[in-house]
Design goal:
The chain is an alpha/beta fold. It contains five helices and four strands. It is globular, with a radius of gyration of 14 Å. Acts on tyrosine phosphorylated proteins, low-MW aryl phosphates and natural and synthetic acyl phosphates.
Length: about 150
């Protein structure tokens, strides 16, 4: 069974979109039962919160639902997930620093954008932006998750 955890600072904008997009793609491809899919935050700011309403609206416009609640990445995540996919360099360095103290590190920590066929490495935070910014995040997640799934199926 493969495992993927999508991460960013608060776990209410980018990472729940990536999680929901990847789950839908895995479901549509008939491989969802071969995956453990989740998302988490590098901070504890929003633990227990639902994703941003604009992100949920964006997902619904594309026929995707999410019942995710924000959570913080744990030590066990580093030991149990195959991949921890970050949205930007700050998340990447934060998680790599935390990984240094994990004895049984299993996770490969990388940027989700490294799978973008358009070479947009960073998935920008739409929190202070508009609905258009959430759509941009969605589109980039679709591109990245498609390549990631193809390479790991």
């Amino acid at each position: 069974m493969a495992t993927g955890l999508f991460c960013h600072v608060g776990n209410i904008c980018r990472s729940p979109i990536a999680e929901a997009v990847f789950r839908k793609m895995a479901t549509d491809s008939g491989v969802v039962d071969k995956w453990v899919i989740d998302s988490g935050a590098t901070s504890d700011w929003n633990i227990g919160s639902f994703p941003d309403a604009r992100g949920l609206a964006c997902l619904r416009r594309h026929g995707i639902d999410s019942d995710h609640r924000a959570r913080q990445v744990t030590k066990q995540d580093f030991e149990s997930f195959d991949y921890i996919l970050c949205m930007d360099e700050s998340n990447l360095s934060d998680l790599k620093r935390k990984a240094n103290s994990i004895k049984n590190l299993k996770a490969k920590i990388e940027l989700l954008g490294s799978y973008d066929p358009e070479n947009e490495l960073i998935i920008q935070d739409p929190y202070y932006g508009s609905d258009k910014d959430f759509e941009t995040v969605y589109e980039q997640c679709v591109r990245c998750c498609s390549v990631f799934l193809e390479k790991n199926s």
